[in-house]
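Entry 14. Ran structure prediction on the chain below.
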Amino acid sequence: MQFRKTRASNDMLYAIGSSSRIYTINSANGAATFVATLSIPLNGTSFGVDFNPVPDRIRIVSNTGQNLRVNPVDGATINDGAINPLPAAITAAGYTNSVTGATTTMLYVIDTDADKLFIQNPPNNGTLTMGMNLGVNADA
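Output, structure tokens:
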């Protein structure tokens, strides 16, 4: 789940289901409301999800190398360049500067098999750079 602070001021908690669906979550009662279905199905068993604050799009990366950019309103999905180099079990993702009005950001991802932190740069190409050991078991 990801909290989305948007330019449109409709701050919402979002979830991506294993059935490739986007939901909003009511923070008062936990009720899930269907928003849209991704136009490209998810591929993998573990996923990293975060909002890119600059274009206001959802980034989804997976343990199979899938690298998606998603419109949170209608589910329109772009299959960006696969995570590379493979193999990489990317299962966590986070953008820096996640504030309304941000003009720049950087995407960090974690490979839970290798226990490494990478910068995915550029995010749309899926290129992993600057791998650093976490010093902990990321699967734990």
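The first strand starts at residue 2 and ends at 4. Will compare against last week's run tomorrow.
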